[in-house]
Specification:
The structure holds 2 protein chains of 2 kinds. Chain A is mainly beta. Helix content of chain A is 0%, strand content 58%. Chain A has no helices and 11 strands. In chain A, the strands form 2 sheets. In chain A, strands 2, 4, 5, 9, 10 and 11 form a 6-stranded mixed sheet that branches. Chain A is globular and about 45 Å long. The N and C termini of chain A lie far apart (41 Å). Chain B is built from no helices and 11 strands. By secondary structure, chain B is mainly β. In chain B, the strands form 2 sheets. In chain B, strands 2, 4, 5, 6, 9, 10 and 11 form a 7-stranded mixed sheet that branches. In chain B, strand 4 and strand 5 form a beta hairpin. The N and C termini of chain B lie far apart (32 Å). The chains are: A mainly beta, B mainly beta. At the A-B interface, strand 4, strand 5, strand 9 and strand 10 of A face strand 5, strand 6 and strand 10 of B.
Chain lengths: 113, 111
């Protein structure tokens, strides 16, 4: 069964600290993997996309990694800010089948001053 | 309009009533989707449309119907709402690269 699992479920950190969020998937065949940020009461917004051949991609203070062999991805947030408080969702797109996008349940991040 | 919009923002509905959630995009994307988001669960696909005039069932289609008369609009209808349909509903569209763009969501409560 195609699945996407994220950890931790929730995380609290102090402003200025770094953190890393994890995503493991079993989706096959694999097309790409995206990380989305979802602010409370809003729709998800794309942060990064990783394809099979990419290992690392950065978007400002966000850096995503992908290990296609172990089917693991991580999202590293550097020098966290209060505005980083949100849910971060890992989404894997399969290259076949009706349900092309498989969503993780997200990691809820809270950054405290 | 910039991007994708949904209406209403929120709604409280009596069980058994009919309700249509509206979704409009101005990006000329061919593919559109309806998801529901429930606490502790990932977004689950209700229905999708690969292009105007076609629709398909997703993971949780029962109790919902959609239509796609044109590229821009993709309404979701609950024919007879039940309390288990209480959720936050997100409409999305995707570009040729497959990147999904989400609307702001509709919070629906069925009593």
């Amino acid at each position: 069964k195609n699945q996407v699992e994220q950890s931790p479920q929730s995380l609290i950190i102090l402003e200025g600290k770094n953190c890393t969020l994890q995503c493991n998937y079993t989706v096959s065949p694999f097309s790409n993997l995206r990380w989305y940020k979802q602010d409370t009461g809003r729709g998800p917004v794309s942060l990064t996309i990783m394809t099979f051949s990419e290992n690392t991609k950065s978007n400002g203070r966000y850096t995503a990694t992908l290990d296609a062999d172990t089917k693991q991805s991580s999202l590293h947030i550097t020098a966290s800010q209060l505005s980083d408080s949100a849910s971060y969702i890992c989404v894997v797109r399969g290259s076949s089948g009706t349900y092309k996008y498989i969503f993780g349940t997200g990691t809820r991040l809270k950054v405290l001053a | 309009i910039a991007g994708i919009t949904q209406a209403p923002t929120s709604q409280i509905l009596a069980a058994g009533r009919r309700m249509t959630l509206r979704c409009t995009q101005d990006m000329r994307h061919n593919a559109m989707y309806w998801y529901r988001q429930d606490l502790g669960l990932g977004l689950r696909l209700i229905h999708y449309s690969n292009t105007a005039g076609t629709t398909g069932k997703g993971e949780v289609p029962d109790g919902y119907s959609v239509s796609r008369a044109n590229t821009d609009d993709f309404p979701l209808t609950l024919a007879s709402a039940v309390p288990s349909q209480t959720s936050v509903y997100f409409c999305a569209s995707s570009d040729l690269r497959g990147e999904q763009f989400f609307g702001p969501g509709t919070r629906l409560t069925v009593l």
